[in-house]
Design a protein that fits this description.
heterodimer; A: 354 residues; mainly alpha; ABC transporter involved in vitamin B12 uptake, BtuC; three-stranded antiparallel sheet; 3 strands; 74% helix; 3% strand; B: 319 residues; alpha/beta; Rossmann fold; six-stranded mixed sheet; five-stranded parallel sheet; 40% helix; globular
């Protein structure tokens, strides 16, 4: 384990096992974790009941809470906070993976039709079996996203397909599935369509410890996926030919990586609904904060995704008052200005260099 | 001496348990609720809150209310149906964002939702027992919701009193009519930016059918039944032209500033120009205009408003 310099003169920390991390990525990761903790503390302070971080810490170290405080902290705020982070993490990583595979910075689970595929199967399940258990809903979401992904791979023609072809075909699939979903919403009974409409706008209302328990395997597997395929994705960023020249078996690894992205996105869609644009926002903001590739890029994107969802939810709850502001909308309101700022600063920085 | 507080606590606890009842709600869930709940929160004010207010219940909370007592939408149904002066319930967060902490702060002993809240019921149940009552047309009729809720909250006596008042009023309106209405058909339409057929649930439907009118069967004409909708189902202008009810009941949108006859005529003119010339009930002077906000809640109060409007109209049209 030692500090060295890479070819571009950046400081790198190399482990015995061969793993390495650049200093600026490490610092960005630590900084983002601190931001996540600060936002989490703010989220824990937000709510109608007078309680917050101090009470929570005292409770963890043995001090008692009133029933109202315990309910607010342990039943409402903490599950909501954790669910926001986990969902944001998964969608952001899914988006970052898709951008590498498609070699297109606009790639997003929503834009590829993966979210819509999940929504279509969930809608079908809700119509056919309204009382279906959550695990079946998750399975349906996974199956829907997977069908779209496999269809996408088949339609664009395997390993030699270009990123642009995947992108265009994804947009076509997304359009068809969105129309199908709207049609189904119109014809489902109102009790089904009302619930679905709320979920389609994105909602953290259902956050509970049991939901988090069902979501945790997806979160755990995200680390396994990052470790397994993170390095391969950095070769994808260089283009298909270069990736193959570097020994990456595209025909085998691309479907597996795509399935992994679908899995992460489907898990998040099932839990909180589609988080529109987050798959694009988070990797770009992460890239602006600390340019990275491979595993580091995925980890930083995940952190930014989690932070954005916690931030959006906290701001909505603190500032919106009696104004209805679903998480999908507040995420756009918070995330898009950050996205524009990041892109503008990047553009100015490039201009300055030249 | 330590036994005394224990026994007292045991007595209080068993008394509290004795006051509970286990019921099956309309979603088929088994729920243990107080026999006489004192602090009720409703998840749909017009369809669940108004029937309870009609029974004399002071609502603790209502989904859609703001903290200052105002309603999130333009129209305050409590003021329109019962007049000013009724105590307003507190809010539990804006539409689409139920605030569980605000809900718990109200300390409810019963939450009443509708089948539309099936997705939220697990979370609501962390605060208080949650009962789901069907409110959609096809699942409930007339003012059945008020009857069901009276039984749920132990207010059957209040409901019987309201029904006595209603039956007396119904009898007096019937007696004032020159002919029997038995077997005559009616069609109630609700104007938004299109024409909609009013479903089977509302005080207006109850009153019209108790007067003797029979609902014009839309299914026989190849139209939708409105199953699943809480109040209305779209009806094409062509279909309306072909239907020939003995009485056409017209209601303008809640959102309109003018829900009386002039405003309703104006709205119908825009959607179906010349309707007065070709619709059979219009040619025969059998069009009754009702204030949608007053008559569409599933309450005895709405049924009484309908009878008042009908009596006024029948006297005018017979002159």
């Amino acid at each position: 384990m030692r500090w060295t310099r890479a070819l571009d003169r950046k400081v790198v920390y190399r482990f015995e096992s061969g793993l390495e991390i650049r200093l600026h990525n490490l610092l960005a990761g630590i900084g983002l974790m601190l931001v996540a903790l600060i936002l989490a503390a703010l989220a824990v302070e937000t709510g109608a009941t007078s309680t917050g971080m101090t009470d929570l810490l005292q409770n963890i170290f043995g001090s008692g809470l009133s029933d109202d405080q315990a309910y607010a902290l342990w039943t409402v705020r903490l599950p909501r906070l954790l669910m926001a982070f986990l969902a944001g993490w998964c969608v952001a990583i899914s988006g970052a993976i898709l951008q590498s595979i498609a070699r297109n910075p606009l790639a997003d689970p929503g834009l590829f039709g993966l979210s819509q595929g999940s929504m279509t199967t969930i809608l079908l399940l809700m119509v056919l079996a309204p009382a279906a258990p959550k695990i079946l809903v998750a399975g349906a979401a996974m199956a829907g996203g997977l069908c779209v992904a496999l269809l996408l791979i088949w339609l664009v023609g395997g390993e030699r397909s270009s990123g642009l072809a995947i992108m265009l075909m994804g947009i076509a699939m997304e359009t068809v599935l969105s129309s199908t979903n709207t049609l189904m919403l119109l014809y489902t009974p109102s009790e089904v369509s009302m619930g679905l409409s709320q979920w389609l706008a994105g909602s953290l209302f259902q956050s509970s410890w049991s939901l988090i328990a069902t979501f945790l395997p997806a979160f755990g597997l995200s680390f396994a996926g990052i470790f397994l395929w993170g390095r391969a994705l950095s070769t994808y960023d260089l283009g298909n030919e270069m990736a193959m020249a570097l020994g990456e078996p595209l025909g085998r690894s691309r479907p597996l990586i795509l399935i992994f992205a679908v899995f992460l996105n489907a898990a998040a869609v099932t839990a909180v609904g589609p988080l529109t644009f987050l798959g694009v926002l988070a990797p770009h903001i992460a890239g602006f904060l600390s340019p990275a590739s491979g595993r580091a890029r995925l980890l930083l994107s995940g952190l930014v995704g989690g932070i954005l969802v916690i931030g959006a939810d906290t701001v909505a709850r603190r500032l919106a008052g009696d104004l209805p502001l679903p998480i999908g909308l507040s995420l756009t309101i918070i995330g898009v200005p950050l996205f524009i700022l990041a892109l503008r600063l990047q553009a100015l920085s490039r201009k300055h260099k030249h | 001496m330590r036994l005394l507080p224990f026994l007292t606590a045991l007595f209080v606890a068993s008394a509290a348990l004795a006051d509970d009842q286990t019921v099956t709600d309309d979603a088929g869930r088994s729920v243990t609720v107080p026999e006489h709940p004192q602090r009720i929160v409703v998840m749909h004010e017009p369809l669940l809150g108004l029937p309870l207010i009609d029974l004399g219940v002071n609502l603790t909370g209502s989904y859609g209310r703001n903290d200052d007592g105002s309603f999130s939408t333009k129209l305050d149904f409590i003021d329109v149906v019962f007049g000013k002066g009724v105590e307003k319930p507190k809010g539990i967060g804006p539409f689409g964002q139920i605030d569980l902490e605000r809900l718990r702060a109200l300390d409810p002993d019963l939450i009443i939702g509708s089948e539309l809240d099936i997705d939220s019921v697990d979370q609501l149940s962390t605060v208080a027992p949650t009962y789901l009552q069907n409110v959609s047309t096809g699942k409930t009729r007339g003012i059945d919701i008020e009857r069901d809720l009276a039984k749920l909250v132990g207010r059957e006596d209040a409901f019987d009193d309201r029904m006595k008042t209603y039956r007396a009023r119904l009898e007096s309106v019937r007696n004032s009519l020159s002919e029997s209405l038995e077997g005559k058909t009616y069609l109630a339409i609700f104007l938004t930016d299109q024409i909609n057929a009013v479903g089977e649930m509302s005080g207006a439907v109850q009153a019209l059918e108790d007067l003797g009118y029979k609902r014009l069967a839309l299914d026989e004409q190849g139209n939708g039944s409105g199953m699943g909708s809480t109040l209305i189902v779209p009806l094409s202008t062509e279909a309306l032209g072909r239907l020939e009810p003995d009485l056409l009941v017209v209601m303008n949108s809640y959102m309109s500033d003018n829900r009386e006859e002039a405003g309703s005529r104006q709205a119908l003119d825009k959607i179906l120009p010349g309707w007065e010339n070709f619709l059979k009930p219009a040619r025969e002077g059998q069009v009754l205009f009702l204030d949608s906000a007053k008559v569409t809640s599933p309450t005895v109060a709405s049924a009484l408003h309908t009878l008042d409007a009908f009596e006024k109209w029948s006297k005018t049209s017979s002159q």
